[in-house]
Design goal:
The structure is a homodimer.
Chain A: E1 3-9, H1 17-29, E2 35-41, H2 45-49, E3 53-55, H3 61-68, H4 85-97, E4 100-107, H5 109-124, E5 130-135, H6 151-172, E6 179-184, H7 191-195, E7 209-211, H8 219-233, E8 236-241, H9 269-281, E9 285-289, H10 292-295, H11 303-321, E10 327-336, E11 339-347, H12 372-378, E12 390-391, E13 394-395
Parallel strand pairs in A: 1-2, 1-4, 4-5, 5-10, 6-8, 6-9, 7-8
Antiparallel strand pairs in A: 2-3, 10-11, 12-13
């Protein structure tokens, strides 16, 4: 009897993480001699700890197609870092109880660490487990892969939004708003913010200034750049990564003042910058914080990103069937014009808890823009449209109510 | 010799205002016996005051097609309320100098007032001018028209974004963010916020709470509703209109505390609500301010909205050719299932400086949701997709550099 597989989603979700799930499930069904049932843990690793498992054999091909077209984490995800030996032991106990021989964990750098720990524990215990990490992060900060599924779609959303909002500001700047600030995600790296630079096709087009965590923000230099941009082009569009820091290493978002309750404003970077620029330059400012809108925007997903999200799921199954555990699937760039890519793999040990910053050669000399090399890297990742089906004027996303398998083990008390 | 026409864009721009411009220009070309050249004032009425006119005969049919697919105000718009007799007299002087017999003004309620004043002044001066207002506002607050071009696309964007972000929050709520707040535009009315209610197809789907300017926010009731929603569904998605007020009539955005410079935070409604909910309920909150992203999102325009934006432009020309000045074009709803509509017109005097609030029968009894009547009203306005062409993964929007006609008159000094 072949052993069963378990798939789980971990960390912040993306517009295409469910496409990876569909890739895993569909590919596993092609190998009935190797893989028995495919279970999914509800809410990521929490579903393993609490033994809340979903049997995916209920999913039809129509469900799998709809998964590919639905953003968010259809099975639930979580932010939970495994801290204790008891938790690790519990995971192994649940795997044993459900005869899990394959563990497909779909996440970013933190999750790769969990995947590695589970893999090592199983090996130490002599339990036959192939743990394979399926990469996913909008932040694009996973090392040893050319890019991470989820990023291309968010990059496409942000570049599209900047191009659109830029046209708005441009048309009103003569008598109204002169500065527009878009705050984007990316944690400690500037991949997303940098990719917004694709919106500009020629000199003077937005975004005019990109603020990256990789370049400390000197407020004097920034204000001078804003004034210079407004003088030159009549308006200034700024994209700011949430993780930007000042020259003392302090997050600018933490400088954003306190709210009515005296709490430091979280994610208050854009309003902080607007206040700074209004005060020192006198320009009317508008600002936007895209937050989850960027991370869930399946309606403007990149076709390249979608294809890669599916491919990494399928490749994880191929690795498993080939007996290669303790690995993360990677995306390899083979050529740039035309863009070609393939799937690879690296040992989990070199991936876990690593962050890949934006390379210095992607950042323009003044620190406020991107280079031609960056454009060459980003361009293919946002290529192609992959709209979801629409019903009644809105994307027809799936929402599933899962039935949870009856547990085998006693309740886990951490 | 037929007299010339002048078209201008006014106030906040929309995803489809350029489609109205294309409608006016294309329709005017069909009536060479009535209408000579079609000029456009750069940056709205400011372009009239400063005699900065663009001759649209340079526009090819390809340009007109691209105008229909490009957000923002391609000719520039402005926020400028005519205040003095000298300004009005200047407008008339420019019209005389350029032999303008037709004035097509594309704006909202404030602009309708300008259009009316210009029309009345011309009449009093015995100058033959047909002034026709082409409606446009994302706020949907123009009276005497079923809806306003621009609104349907913004409604579609907001409902799409709420459905997407809702899936994101839902998938993470077990261990992370439980409350998500999206701040949307709409000035003093709740049309945009209310339309987001279309995202929910069944009980319990986001948005769970809609905060409308038409319903004073009692913070205690709001906090109880948030707690109740999280208890029931595990998470809570809130859409808040920028113009919501508390029970004392104060804008909640002004209660949002001060920024680092001691200034009241503009548009700080979403972070204010997040702080309030975090403090009183203890839930992790995320928030987004869509700002110009919603107003410029041509990539997700409503096909209905686009068709109506073109139609009101064309209809303005038909009114002009029929000799009917001092009017605003309107959209009339003829039937709901199937949705059918036609074009009408009302005298400008009944439109200018009026705001149409969300009707009471569109607001659910608890003040936090929309009724079936509201859904019937909103549903057809977001129907149909009308994506722009894409190049290199991004919408291929037009950007024009206009050549300005040499002025005839001395420089205007207000």
């Amino acid at each position: 009897m072949p052993m069963n597989a378990l798939y789980a989603q971990s960390g912040g979700v993306t517009p295409v993480i469910n496409a990876s799930a569909a890739g895993v499930i569909a590919a596993a069904r092609m190998h009935p001699n190797h893989i028995g049932r495919v279970y999914v843990a509800k809410n990521g690793i929490l579903g393993v700890l609490h033994e809340e498992l979903i049997d995916t054999s209920v999913l039809t091909n129509t469900d799998l197609a709809q998964l590919k077209a639905t953003p968010g984490g259809a099975f639930g995800s979580c932010r939970h870092k495994i801290k204790t030996e008891a938790e690790l032991a519990r995971i192994l106990a649940v795997f044993k109880a459900w005869d899990i021989g394959y563990f497909f964990y779909n996440g970013g750098g933190d999750s790769a660490d969990t995947c590695l720990k589970v893999s090592e524990l199983a090996e130490a215990a002599g339990y036959p487990l192939l743990a394979i990490h399926v990469p996913k992060t909008i932040d694009n900060d996973l090392p040893h892969t050319d890019n991470s599924p989820g990023f291309g779609s968010v990059a496409k959303y942000v570049a599209t939004s900047v191009r659109e909002a830029g046209l708005d500001v441009r048309s009103m700047a003569a008598s109204s708003t002169k500065v527009f600030i878009l705050e984007v995600m990316g944690r400690h790296t500037g991949w997303i913010a940098a990719a917004s630079g694709l919106a500009a096709r020629s000199e003077g087009e937005p975004p005019h200034l990109i603020l990256l965590p990789e370049v400390a923000v000197d407020e004097g230099r920034l204000l001078a750049a804003v004034e210079n941009t407004v003088m030159r082009y009549g308006y200034c569009v700024i994209v700011a990564a949430e993780g930007v820091k000042d020259t003392h290493g302090t997050f600018l978002s933490e400088a954003g003042g306190k709210d009515a309750f005296g709490h430091v404003q979280l994610g208050g970077l854009a309003p902080y910058l607007a206040g700074l620029i209004k005060t020192h330059c006198g320009f009317k400012c508008h600002w936007s914080v895209a937050d989850y809108l960027q991370r869930a925007a399946r309606h403007t997903a990149s076709a390249t990103d979608l294809a890669q999200a599916i491919a990494v799921g399928e490749a994880a199954v191929k690795l498993a069937v080939a007996g290669q555990g303790g690995m993360m699937v990677t995306i390899e760039r083979l050529g740039e014009v035309p863009y070609t890519w393939d799937i690879g793999a690296v040992p989990l040990g070199v991936v876990a808890n690593c962050e890949k910053p934006l390379p210095a050669e992607f950042i323009a000399a003044d620190g406020f823009g991107i280079t031609a090399a960056a454009r060459r890297y980003f361009a293919p990742l946002i290529a192609g449209e992959a709209p979801p089906p629409y019903i009644d004027g809105l994307p027809d996303y799936g929402t599933w109510v899962w039935s949870i398998e009856a547990p085998c083990l006693p309740i886990f008390k951490p």
